[in-house]
Amino acid sequence: MALPISYSSGEKEFIRQRILKGxxxxxxxxxxTIDSVKQLLENHKIYFSSCKEFNDPFESAVNILxxxxxxxxxxxxxxxxxxxxxxxxxxxxxxxxxxxxxxxLKQLTIEVISSVGYYCMTTKPDNLLMWAxxxxxxxxxxxxxxxxxxxxxxxxxxPVDYNEQYMDYDMxxxxxxxxxxxxxxxxxxxxxxxxxxxxxxxxxxxKPDCLVEIIFGCxxxxxxxxxxxNLATASGFTxxxxxxxxxKRDSYGLEI
Length: 256
Known about the structure:
By secondary structure, this protein is of the alpha/beta class. The protein has one domain (9-255). The protein contains nine helices and 15 strands. It has helices at residues 9-21, 34-43, 70-79, 84-96, 101-115, 128-134, 151-154, 177-180, 222-234, and strands spanning 27-32, 45-48, 62-65, 117-122, 141-146, 158-159, 161-162, 167-170, 182-183, 192-197, 202-205, 211-216, 241-244, 246-247, 254-255. A hairpin with a 6-residue loop joins strand 14 and strand 15 (254-255). The longest helix has 15 residues, at 101-115.
């Protein structure tokens, strides 16, 4: 049930090679408001959210399968590699008989999911709906990150699985990651990739070089553009490129 918290040098090199081969995107984008970008530039930090903060109430919805014997639940729990603090408290309950194995693992599943931190990104810098929803109605920015320039932060970009059905989750045998990456097909337009931290929520420091481009929206004010440019330089983001999204003249779309 547990997810990897850190990666070995060998695993990092394997993922690095996959990125270089094109199996995993090297550049990903994040739509943000002007105020949130100011905070990023000033602090060199991005924010990993809890699923409870998402705008989708169906996030991490799951159909939990059950039906194992008490002994099977007990053995799976005792022999598993659960978080020590969780294991200590819940082991007391299952051993004393105050909680059954099925309830125990359901609680554990919910607790683990709730403790995960997400940084959601996309492959598209020119999506009209995402500019409207996440880029302050085209008055914000779209940030371009180079994954290879900060592998500690961006391991591993995981593509979202868009599916009509909740995940059938077998608590003893299924991969918990499958829950964390599933969403309704209604969100398919986002073409989302997720960076998942199993041990962290909140602010996370990044390397300045990983932010390679700031794209201003077609409604971003000149005042905000100048302020962001000056702040980026003053904060050490000296390699960032500045671009802007412009409305196409003859069709519904944007040109960067």
